[in-house]
Amino acid sequence: MDRDEARDILFNFIKEKSLRYTRQREEILQTFLSAGRHITVEELYNVLRKKNTGIGYATVHRNLKLMKECGLADEMKIGSDKTRFEQAYGQRHHDHLICMKCGRIIEVNDDRIERLQDKLAEVNNFFPLKHKLEIYGSCKKCR
Amino acid sequence: MDRDEARDILFNFIKEKSLRYTRQREEILQTFLSAGRHITVEELYNVLRKKNTGIGYATVHRNLKLMKECGLADEMKIGSDKTRFEQAYGQRHHDHLICMKCGRIIEVNDDRIERLQDKLAEVNNFFPLKHKLEIYGSCKKCR
DNA sequence: TTATTATTGATAATAATAATCAATATTAGT
DNA sequence: ACTAATATTGATTATTATTATCAATAATAA
Ligand SMILES: [Mn+2]
Ligand SMILES: [Mn+2]
Ligand SMILES: [Zn+2]
Ligand SMILES: [Zn+2]
Question: At CB < 8 Å, which residues of chain B contact A?
Fold first, then answer.
């Protein structure tokens, strides 16, 4: 994702809602964009702490939620772990293979599955809005 | 699921592990079998409370976990709701359509999707053990 | 510069789940 | 049936993730 584009999205969202563009928001956005995918609030908070930004946990939490609101982040919950956030803007939908041994998360896509899911909903008179497919097992290394 | 068969499974599991077959366990099992699918600890606890069984919340919680251990129950977590339990013995695997308006849960199955999931794992050098497919949207009534 | 008010960061509240522990109940052995 | 051993219960507390609170501060517009 383009950094400037991401900043624009956040900035415009903030202006539209009469919110304020703070040093903390800029810092959290940049750090989030640099960080690995599927990061928790705690993990992002720890990265920011090492940078001596003095940003509090609550602020990280609040602003990841804000970034979700404006479409820059997606929220995901795996099992009963902590909520994870991943970059969403410019990313196409994908599902996840989750290694139960090392925690690695592999992003995958299968159009045939996507289409069959829509059909499955249809034959059940169900109007699908979103879905979650997670396959749990062990990855190559942990086999 | 056959009641006697279910009791046998629990009973044998308990004997194998040198545990004890208590009045509470029998009561919780029977009530769980009679209750609707995808029930929470709290919901089951409330049913038991109405029956004046005097069984505590912690005991319900512990024993639903036990029933999961012996294969009589499956645990599922939808979004950030409370954990739900459903009968597992004699039930084939299925996925869920979840109405975001009324909370209705429709159980579905599609062998083609199942097979494609296995292939998807395979091409990613991933060994699948279980999976979770949930489609969120609105049901017929809530359309 | 000033007034307004959104934001922050520390902390407390909430809520789901699990752990603790003394009292009690179950079980096996006699 | 009695006893000893110990698993279980139920009330309560602890833990953990998430969210709310609030006084101090910072961002924004006039
Ligand atoms: Mn992902
Ligand atoms: Mn089900
Ligand atoms: Zn792995
Ligand atoms: Zn509905």
Answer: 77, 79-80, 83, 97, 99-100, 106, 108, 110, 112-113, 116-117, 120-121, 124-140, 143
